[in-house]
Amino acid sequence: MKKILTILTSVAFLLSASIFAHDHDGHGKNAMAGDHFKKMDTNSDNKVSKEEWQKFHEGFFTELDKDADGSVTLEEMKAARMEKREEKKEAMKEKVKEAKQKKGEKKKKTSE
């Protein structure tokens, strides 16, 4: 009985681990890497040259360096992160608002 229970537990664990590890249609960490790659690959040759890499990261550094003193502090990094979070929240609120509007329009059309 112990062997069967151990085997079933192992199988259940492996199945759940493989499901969560799978990158479902580009969602998750791999999607973010793909987005960064596309942004860096400015000539769309599916390669990132050293120059493209440096240009992308230089722009990112400049964006973080709010006081333009040539260095980035931990506070500047935290502020940039919070700013991005707020932008994402606002974008999500807009999507929800649009979805509700579409749903309302759909209900109107079906009731007519």
Please describe the structure with a list of short key phrases separated by commas or semicolons:
single chain, 112 residues, mainly alpha, 4 helices, 0% strand
Please tell me how large the radius of gyration is: 23 Å
Give the overall form. extended
SS content category: mainly alpha
Which residues form runs of ≥5 with pLDDT under 50? 22-26
Could you walk me through the main structural features you see in this protein, from its secondary elements to its overall organization?
The model is unreliable at 22-26 (pLDDT under 50). Helices cover 76% and strands 0% of the residues. The protein starts with a helix and ends with a helix. It is mostly helical and 112 residues long.
SSE layout and pairings?
Elements: H1 2-21, H2 29-40, H3 50-64, H4 74-111
Q: Summarize this, please?
A:
With 112 residues, the protein is mostly helical. The chain is built from four helices and no strands. The radius of gyration is 23 Å and the shape is extended.
